[in-house]
Amino acid sequence: MRWIALLFPSLALDVFARALPPQHAAAPLVVHEEGRTPRVIAADAAAREAGVRDGMPLSAALALAPGATQQPRDVAAEEDALARLATFALAFTPAVSLADGAIVAEIRGSLRLFGGEAKLVAGLVDGVRERGFAPRVALAPTPLAALALARAGAEAAPDAPGGLARALAPLPLAAFDVEPATIATLEAAGVRTFGDAERLPRAGLARRFGRALVDTLDRAAGRVPDPREPFVPPPQFASRLELPACVHDVEALAFAVHRLVQELAAWLLARGLGVTALTLALAHERALVRHLGSPCTHARFALATPSRTPAHLTHVMRERLARLALPAPVAGLALATEAVAPLAGRNLGLLPGSEADAPEVPLLDRLRARLGEDAVRLVLPRADHRPERAMRAPLPEACASAWPSAPAGDAPRPLWLLARPQPLRGLTAAQPWVLREGPERIESGWWDGHDVRRDYFVAESPAGEVAWIYRDHRHGTDDGEWFLHGVFA
Amino acid sequence: MTPALAALLSHPAIWRGGDCAPEPAALSTGYAALDAVLPGGGWPGRALVEMQVAHEGIGELRLTLPAVARLTRDGRQVAWVAPPYRPYAPALAAAGVDLARLLLVRCRDAKEALWAFEQALRAPECGAAFAWLAESDERRLHRLAVAAREGRTLGVLWRRPGVTAQATAAPLRLALAAREGALEVRVLKRRGGEVAQPIRLDVAQRWSTLPPGAQPPAFGPRVPVRPVRPDPRTSAGHAQAQRSPRLRRAAN
């Protein structure tokens, strides 16, 4: 077994700071606890440079860093973020657990797939960093040892016999899940580190401090199993991102969207799904919301095929956002899935380089993202005798083959149909046209109010153009008007 | 020519003036006479083709339909960007086109159409892309030609004649006209020697099979005085001094 522990010491800060790209985070950021005298619990590098320290009253911090952005601690967002990170970790191993503000995951089973421990850990840590979180990482043969090493800020325990005991020996007992009262008693007796506690007689230790302490030591050292409750990704995806300051800039918004899309992609991967429809809600500043009536700007995205490729999703959303008119600055974003479909994994190629042709953004999604949802249509025949009703133009969602279609009659039909029949009167020429074929009587539709009674002809102009024209007999006489309805292109 | 000389001349490094450049991914047009003059024996599978059509309704689209039908039935997509009218589904289905693979792209302006055309040309899933554009900027056309080559897509750009004097970035340029009931194709440019004679193709449908010698009836809308049934057998001579209909591009 090889466990990795990811600890997030600056989680309270990261949940706010990560919504903005680094170059935008100019103002110092201070996160404080709410209460009668709010105290700083986290401050970013800029605030620390100004002298802000954890535990300082908020008023003192603001005196030191007058331009600082202050945010109350958002515990729900922190829990949420941790769950999302655990979802992301599921891309590397199926055995992921949450442990008191940290993530532990067993990686031995995945080492071969990812090409070794160094590569897997680098991939995991880079992914977490890319999501805007700063993890502290440690590896050990047991989850508790990995956690303790991460808490103590120590290096990874070597994966060799005896290595674990040597690595754990200097760690303070506080790094393990030991009760504070027990720690205080042991410290009074001069027992400070894990190594000190291990040297004590176990029977006496168990009698004096209870089974729990011995059990903790055993679990850390790997002498007894340490079962962990596996993390299960939520059945629905809905993620929100608070922006530390209101954003007018689409570029800064695109960055935040990218963050959300990464989370979505990780969730889809963990559940073996692809998304086909998404909603992005942009929450506006509270003060302006009241004036405009609507609290959010909603944008819906539909995809032609289920997808979970971040590049694909980001591309589609970026194109759309670029054209979105924002009525007010944006204070937060929320991304939720509307429709998902199972999406099987892709097999790796047998030969190197064959995975290079990874699917790009499909043409359909590119076009629809830029030109609008209904800019791309299919034309399919429909069983109706009236030419203008003999087809429909559905959105190309279902891409099943339409071939072979219903057998066509042998009457000539033009390739182009005019959107609306055009009176021939207005279309003039010096020479007469020639009727090539006809008449073909089409009389139908008396039941739905769009009845037609027409004689269709194929006619040729002096220039050689062949058109489909008809004479309208709707009003019962033989003296109807002539219309141009199609072109034999 | 002696066999030894013929063998020597067939060496791939030797290119003779009358030969066409090799076309690796040609698609048969479905018309043998046209295939014979196109490099590789068909539409270029990864290049831009410029079609100059003086009038609509002379069979210009029917010329390309066999290739479109085969591409769609092979599972490739075909995109039509900014067509001037609504493509009529029953006629397309009758021509053998798999309509689930034919994407119609509606654009609000020429800039969007140009963008959509380029995207379609670059898309790997797209076998062919047609666009009806009034574009005449040489650099943009060059960009489209590069997109077709890199995206391995047959691009067809429908244009009005009158741009013949301009140079074109498209490696194949055809002019289409109606002549005596047939479609006349002139090869204005190809990768190979010049084609002196225009090719005449019979793309017409059933109505052209009037019995030989039969006088086709003339047609013109009557001055609204007396109802007259335009019967093709009896209505010869209905030509009016009054204005006759003339095809024009409809506001779509």
Describe the structure.
The complex is a heterodimer of chains A (489) and B (252). Chain A is of the alpha+beta class and 489 residues long. Helices cover 31% and strands 26% of the residues of chain A. Chain A has 16 helices and 19 strands. Chain A has a five-stranded antiparallel sheet with strand order 15-19-18-17-16, with no helix packed on it. The longest helix of chain A has 22 residues, at 250-271. Chain A starts with a strand and ends with a strand. Chain B has a domain at 27-182 and 192-204: P-loop containing nucleotide triphosphate hydrolases (Rossmann fold), CATH 3.40.50. Chain B has an eight-stranded mixed sheet with strand order 4-2-5-6-1-7-8-9, sandwiched between helices. In chain B, strand 7 (172-179) and strand 8 form a beta hairpin. Chains A and B meet through helix 16, strand 12, strand 13, strand 14 and strand 15 of A and helix 3, strand 3, helix 4, strand 4 and helix 5 of B. Strand 16 (433-444) of chain A pairs antiparallel with strand 10 of chain B, so a sheet runs across the interface.
